[in-house]
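Interim report, section 4.2 (structural modelling).
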Amino acid sequence: MTLNPPNSVATGLEQELEPLWRFTLYLTRDNHDAEDLFQRACLRALEQRDKYQPTGQLRSWLFRLTQNVWYNELRSRTIRDRRAFVSGDLAGQEAENVEGSQPDSSLLFNQVFNAVEALPEAQRLVVILVCVEGFSYREAAEVLDIPTGTVMSRLARARYTLGNQFLGTETQQPGEKSGNTRSQVTQP
Amino acid sequence: MKPTLEELTQYVDGEVSPARRSQLDLLREQDSELNRTVTALETSRLPIRRAYNLGQYPPLPEALKTQARGWIQLASGSSHAKPLSFWTRMGFSACLAAAVLVGYLVAQPPIPRSTTVNLAVQEAGSGSIVDWAEVIASYQSLYVRETVEHLERTDNAKKTVETTSTILQQTRVKIPDLSHHGFHFVRAQRLGYKQKPLFQLVYLADDGVPLALCFMPDVADPRTLTQFDFDKLNTGYWREAGHRFVIVGDIDNHLMSMLYQSSREQML
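Predicted structure of the assembly:
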């Protein structure tokens, strides 16, 4: 059965609540802001569900809509500088509590997490969308409303930064260049 | 040709042609800086997904999940028949936020134009006026200026007028003009509270957050204005002439009193 756009959004949104929640956390990095953004994103998605084109990925559509809500509505308030959620203490504690993890691997995961979180905002979101959420370059470009080449460029720079950190060398940022188009997703 | 960082990323991922790979292999041997860059990119094959999947971020709170499911349920129900246009016209986010956000309000179907509703007999089970005012205030705290401005931009003005007209016909309560206090009327909508109709009038100040004036039938004894703060919003409620009223906004007590007087004089 083919659902019309409004019904497909209403039905599909329930399956996308967890990814949507993660994305609000990625964007806001603050529990309270994420809750606020999550509520608004759900409402906006349902309000605008007749605008969804079923040919596209619902998740991409939801993420893009959520990002627009974040930038257009919530960021206008004085919440930009609150970053209470991501603290080294919390991240460390969570990593140590992972059942079955070896201390060394926990430390590595914690370091990787903190390294990605420390990336510039634009690069961080690209890394999360591509490497964590499994978006293709094209899908990530749609969500972030940027060219695919820019996604590739940001990802390359992010990988260079991360690689340098784990080599123990000082990071040097080459100038950003537009990459040629690739269709395959690469997991660093 | 000196490779870009993007091309070197393709190189370490094995996505360049064999011919180009040979060229880059040679360049890497000749250029230590290039070799260092490639080594960094190779090192970037880190367990990023696992690092993020190990509980660094908290899971979706159950309360939020339940709330969202309630909204979805309402949306699914409203899209099957007539109510979709109703939701669109009335501002879906405002209806849903009011209806489900705090678990008390329940969205109502549109009132048929030909139906006469006796609002004054619906007192039983509508809850205490204090609880009711708190519910309205908690909803209103989410109803920020940007939300109203968004609704203003997306609304069809003609339909909004029709909605307002319908509400006026059904309630016999007039919409007060609060422009002399700095608030211009934006929209009216019918919500629900414990299976009873609840009407919300939204005003927007030129330089402030929205103001809400809500009312519903209540035949209990009259009660004068009582005020309290909720989430930095001043909330004033009263009861008279078979209705209960509440005003919620980022306003001081003096302005609240003036709005209370103006509303009383014009609404009933």
